[in-house]
């Protein structure tokens, strides 16, 4: 069925990046801008919520103006305003949500609230100007959503139609990357720093455990994180008789072995779920989908067609919110200006 044409301006401010984007028909980016706070929060080893919300206040207007300028459009040329309404940091979400409300009220445009995780799912179909348009999703599809706060297997039977099959029982995959990076004295965020260290390491050096949680589609990475901690302590203890200047942790091997364990579990359980539910396609999305070992496992070994967003759309961005917002808008999911933040994924 052919869907109507629409131009959507979206605002994303769920964590530490202020982003805005204009999309046409839920697919093509007409303009996009982002103000990152990564360098600011790196000194804390994680996102400092109060600092993040203050930076959003400073950045949101210039970012929206830049996205519209790139698209060569004004508010009068748009069909709707979309915004992230959760989950995320409350103070950060409120900045973007209130900006979107003001724009919608001032320009008399419909307002569409989008769940941040739903946006990640739709990031895989967004295309940049000049790129080939991705094929339409083939339903049913099996989506693996992996980020700093979430690791979930979701069966999509159609647009906006989700069944949550399983999720992490403790640490999310991205959270585990951050915590292990701190154990290995690697920089924040943990995902990129562990990947970089692992490039020079042996993924078979340490046999870290895989929590398969048989007969469920759930995940658990807490035990893996603890195993890395114990291995680090054993290595440090064994070096007790060596001069401090002669001892250094085999960080590269530890990082590579940890990364391999995470990727193995994520890939294997997703393939099993896809077979069980007769999926026609695999979707990999969320910040951890930027990990090259995980991406390569799906691209090289998957039994199904795989759709993974480009690296620029794996982490938080507004284009994914505009894409999900488009499908919500054309299916009649318009919200009142009184909407508030939604702290959880409705399927959680």
Order of helices and strands: EEEHHEHEHEEEHHHHEHEH
Note the overall shape.
Answer: globular
Strand order of the largest sheet: 3-2-1-4-5
Q: Provide the gyration radius in Å.
A: 21 Å
Brief summary:
The protein has 348 residues and is of the alpha/beta class.
Note down, in words, how this protein is organized.
The protein is an alpha/beta fold and 348 residues long. The protein has 2 domains: 7-128 and 313-330, ATPase, nucleotide binding domain (Nucleotidyltransferase, domain 5, 2-Layer Sandwich); 141-309, Nucleotidyltransferase, domain 5. 40% of the residues lie in helices and 18% in strands. It is built from 10 helices and 10 strands. The protein has helices spanning 38-42, 49-71, 90-107, 116-122, 173-183, 190-198, 222-238, 251-276, 292-301, 318-330; strands at residues 7-12, 17-24, 28-36, 80-86, 111-115, 141-146, 151-158, 161-167, 281-285, 306-307. The strands form 2 sheets. A 5-stranded mixed β-sheet has the order 3-2-1-4-5, with helices on both faces. A 5-stranded mixed β-sheet has the order 8-7-6-9-10, sandwiched between helices. Helix 2 (49-71) packs parallel to helix 3 (90-107), helix 6 packs across helix 8 and helix 8 packs parallel to helix 9 (292-301). The longest helix has 26 residues, at 251-276. The relative contact order is 0.18. The mean pLDDT is 93.
């Amino acid at each position: 069925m052919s869907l109507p044409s629409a131009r959507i301006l979206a605002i994303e401010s769920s964590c530490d990046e202020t982003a805005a984007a204009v999309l046409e028909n839920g697919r093509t980016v007409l303009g996009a801008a982002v103000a990152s706070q990564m360098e600011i929060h790196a000194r804390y080893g994680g996102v400092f919520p109060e600092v993040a919300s203050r930076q959003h206040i400073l950045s949101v207007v210039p970012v929206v103006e830049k996205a519209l300028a790139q698209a060569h459009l004004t508010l009068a040329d748009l069909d709707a305003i979309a915004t992230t309404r959760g989950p995320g940091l409350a103070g950060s979400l409120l900045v973007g949500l209130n900006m979107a409300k003001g724009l919608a009220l001032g320009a008399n445009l419909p307002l569409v609230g989008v769940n941040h995780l739903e946006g990640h799912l739709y990031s895989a179909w967004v295309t940049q100007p000049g790129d080939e348009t991705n094929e339409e999703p083939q339903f049913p599809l099996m989506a693996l959503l992996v980020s700093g706060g979430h690791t979930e297997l979701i069966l999509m039977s159609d647009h906006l139609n989700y069944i949550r099959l399983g999720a992490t029982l403790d640490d999310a995959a991205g959270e585990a990357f951050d915590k292990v990076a701190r154990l290995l004295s690697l920089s924040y965020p943990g995902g990129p720093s562990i990947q970089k260290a692992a490039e020079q390491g042996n993924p078979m050096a340490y046999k870290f455990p895989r929590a398969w949680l048989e007969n469920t589609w759930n995940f658990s990475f807490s035990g893996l994180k603890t195993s890395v901690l114990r291995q680090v302590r054993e290595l440090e203890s064994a070096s007790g008789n060596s001069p401090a200047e002669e001892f250094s942790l085999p960080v590269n091997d530890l990082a590579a072995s940890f990364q391999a364990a995470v990727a193995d579990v994520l890939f294997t359980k997703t393939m099993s779920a896809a077979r069980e539910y007769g999926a026609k396609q695999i979707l990999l999305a969320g910040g951890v989908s930027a990990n090259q070992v995980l991406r390569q496992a799906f691209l090289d070994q998957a039994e199904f067609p795989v759709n993974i967003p480009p690296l620029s759309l794996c982490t938080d961005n507004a284009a994914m919110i505009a894409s999900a917002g488009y499908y919500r808008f054309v299916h009649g999911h318009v919200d009142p200006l009184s909407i508030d933040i939604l702290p959880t994924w409705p399927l959680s």
